[in-house]
Design brief:
There is one protein chain. The chain is mostly helical. It folds into two domains: about 1-115, Hypothetical protein af1432 (Orthogonal Bundle); about 120-199, Methane Monooxygenase Hydroxylase, Chain G, domain 1, CATH 1.20.58. It is about 60% helix and about 0% strand. The longest helix is centred in the C-terminal third of the chain and has 25 residues, at about 170-195. The mean pLDDT is about 95.
């Protein structure tokens, strides 16, 4: 089976700190927590987590359009010596972990858990940190009202992050999301108040 150290070598070219191996390990730990409660095949789930973003660096450079679809193909190469059913289960989970257009909806429990764990890493305190890291790397303003044309972390929250908790599949992930969502909402509300001198 694939080890964490072996998986780490597949992410050496990743420059995006919001999708680096630290992200992979956060998703891995969340998926373990969810998978144990939901009764998942933990070997399939752990392997899918370790491989879910192996094509992300190429999407970031524009070499490919869809890292989930390409990642599903690369999984088959990485796991070529494993049983076909196992490889297919991991590949399908990787193929459906992203919101990106064209990706199929996760079907297996393991695919749903990977999807959920990946999305949970986009909300809460870590989600706020990732949103500002992403914006900072692109030279975006710290804050702008939603009525402006500026794209900020606040815009990302309003357009995408605040909707994540309602798109999760498993009861365990939805329970985790409630607290993370509440923290994130409170943070962005407070940010708007501070920017406007109200607090």
């Amino acid at each position: 089976m694939l080890t964490i150290d072996e998986a780490r070598t597949l992410y050496k070219q990743v420059e995006d700190t919001t999708h680096d191996f630290d992200h992979v390990m956060r998703v891995y730990r969340l998926a373990e927590r969810i998978g144990q409660k939901e009764g998942a095949d933990m070997v399939v789930l752990r392997t899918a987590c370790l491989l879910h973003d192996i094509a992300r660096a190429d999407q970031d450079t524009g070499a490919i359009k869809n890292h989930a679809a390409e990642g599903a193909i690369r999984v088959k190469n990485v796991l070529h010596d494993q049983p076909p059913e196992f490889v297919e289960a991991v590949s399908q989970a990787v193929a459906t972990h992203s919101f990106r257009d064209g990706n199929a909806v996760p079907k297996s429990l393991e695919a749903k858990i990977l999807f959920d764990a990946d999305k949970l890493d986009a909300i809460g305190a870590i989600g706020v940190a990732r949103a500002f890291t992403f914006g900072g790397r692109r030279g975006r303003k710290l804050w702008a009202p939603l009525s402006s044309d500026e794209n900020t972390a606040y815009t990302e929250y309003d357009v995408k992050l605040c909707k994540i908790k309602d798109r999760l599949f498993t009861p365990t992930a939805r329970a985790i999301a409630e607290e993370r969502h509440a923290f994130m909402t409170e943070f962005f509300d407070r940010l708007a108040q501070e920017v406007n001198g109200e607090m």
